[in-house]
Model the fold of this input.
Amino acid sequence: MQGYATLRKGRVSVAGQIYLVTFITAARIRLFEDHDIARQAAQALTDHRLWYRSRLLAWVLMPDHWHGLIELGAMDSLSIVVQKLKSNSARRIRAEHPAIQAVWEKGFHDRAIRTEAVVRPAARYIVANPLRAGLAASIGDYPYWDSIWL
Done:
């Protein structure tokens, strides 16, 4: 897939670097409009066992995609962290909903956050996604997000 190869081009994993990561559902299906599936995905994506080296600083689960602000830990690669997130959540969802064949599309988009001054605005951008999409009137009305800066 040429598009996925383009996303990987120039990708470098740097310990301590903060990345804004986005990945989408298979065929952009609005899978997480179902609150049971969204709850399962949110629990799987934030499972503390996945975050023992890297840190999840902020995240939001939208109906057809996930955004996260990830501080990469020592001995982790961004691709492996994302692979663990996607496989853990897909496994949990398919265990409860066997009719769902594919949860996530291949690949992901990332952007390295280069300066400390951009970290909190990036977190605000992430958690405000439901507001911009018209899914909630206030951030507190939307259940599938979190940030270390609460």
Notes: The radius of gyration is 15 Å. Strands lie at 18-24, 55-61, 65-71, 109-113, 145-147. The chain is about 35% helix and 20% strand.
